[in-house]
Amino acid sequence: MEHIDFNNDLLSFLNQSPTPWHAVATMKKQLDSSGFHPLDEKDDWSLQAGNGYYVIRNGSSIVAFRTGNTDTTKAGVRMVGAHTDSPCLKVKPNPVLRRKGFLQLGVEVYGGALLNPWFDRDLSLAGRVTYGDCNGQVQDALIDFRKPVAFIPSLAIHLDREANSNRTVNPQTDLPPVLMQVPEDDTTDFASLLITQLKAENGVTAERILGYELSFYDVQQAGFVGLRNNFIASARLDNLLSCYIGLQALLETSGEQPALLVCNDHEEVGSMSAEGAQGPFLSSVLERWCGAGKSRAIAHSMMISADNAHGIHPNFMDKHDENHGPQLNAGPVIKVNHNQRYATNSRSAAVYRHLSDQLGLPHQTFVVRSDMGCGSTIGPLTAANLGVTTLDIGVPQLGMHSIREMIGSDDAYTLFKVLTGFYQSPQVF
What is one Pfam family matched by this protein (predicted)? Predict the structure, then answer.
């Protein structure tokens, strides 16, 4: 895949994936069109050498893998991990608020979101809805309103003279989005709005809504930014970017070596769920694939945890260690933390540097300032659960956890090329 095609397809992937469920559905389509076979955890598996397979859990996490043509107990498995979720505003179970003729929805903040950028944006709504059909069966469907249906207006500066110096955001009272104006005797029910959307979008008739997991998102599409298109700006770059890079690398491989991509949900809230990185999903898939030889396979394996890194901000350069401020468009970032917030060690970092250098591609290193706390990734969790040598790496970005984030337009393709080489490497350990 060429650089221009790669970035254009990336923009399309981001625009089609407003929620983890949509991201996994988009990935599934690409895997299906590339000849990968779906597996169901409830069924027996009969895996064949040289084939591609994928497993989905909860609709929001996915493991895709190529079995390769070599014995996993001797060759190991080349693994890449990412996560499908991003900080956002999720609709509460009983959300409807009626205030002075406005109909609003109560929301819960998911993950460590930057809240101020959510004001004064055109918002839509998407996610999974569970409903009872006319046959008494429980069904799931994805919905995406696609158009602007909500807005969170800022309080005018005339009513808050300290807005530019001392404004804070109360998630309970300040964030309910406005959906429409309604008369005083209005009885609009949120469930009825969802039933109408299910019919319009999916052609299904829901007798009643049984549950939902819905998120607001910014309708502004992903695109190039800058006088010379040096940057890409989008929502959910953290971490749909890594999901896309890992998937394209897996699809690009010859299939000779055993290779795997895992994209977990719930990383932004700690990963402790059935489909999160602290859960058993990946380990279960490896057990069913490698069987009694799983432990030997792990000893020959390596995991690359791909999650975006903090690029140096030109207005806040003092927030980085003076020798470890990654620049946009200067290559992917090897993330190091000796307190194990990142799983990188000297050997796993060396493997990446060696592959990158062989391809003539750039790389950087990030260490958080010693007087600041460090975030984390699925890397340490996966390393601890599996006992696999792990590297934490990521594309440098600005605006992390904002409603709109920015990366360099060269870095994702660079990581894609190195991960493709990693997947096809005859020997890792």
Answer: Peptidase_M18
Q: What is the pLDDT of residue 175?
A: 98
Q: Cβ contacts of residue 231 below 8 Å, gap of 6+?
A: 224, 225, 328, 406, 407, 408, 409
pLDDT at 205: 93
My answer on whether 251 and 205 are in the same domain is no
Residues 350, 405 share a domain: yes
**Can you count the helices (H) and strands (E) in the chain?**
11, 20
Residues 182 and 143 in one domain: yes
Helix (H) / strand (E) element for 14: namely: helix 3-15
Mean pLDDT of 346-354: 96
Q: Which backbone phi and psi does 402 adopt, to 5 degrees?
A: -85, 170
The Cα–Cα gap between 360 and 156 comes to 52
Query: At residue 429, does pLDDT exceed 70?
Result: no
Instruction: Please give the average per-residue pLDDT across 38-61, as a whole number.
Output: 97
Which residue stretches of 117-236 are H helix? Answer: 163-166, 190-202
pLDDT beyond 90 at 370: no
Domain that holds residue 339: 3-86+235-424
Of all residues in the chain, the percent with pLDDT exceeding 90 is 92
CA nearest neighbour of 36 among 247, 306, 244, 243: 247
| Chosen domain end from 159, 184, 218 | 218
Residue 228 lies in a domain: no
Number of domains in the chain: 2
pTM: predicted TM-score of the whole model, two decimal places: 0.96
DSSP state of 154: P
Distances (CA, A) of 286 to 19, 382, 385: 26, 12, 12
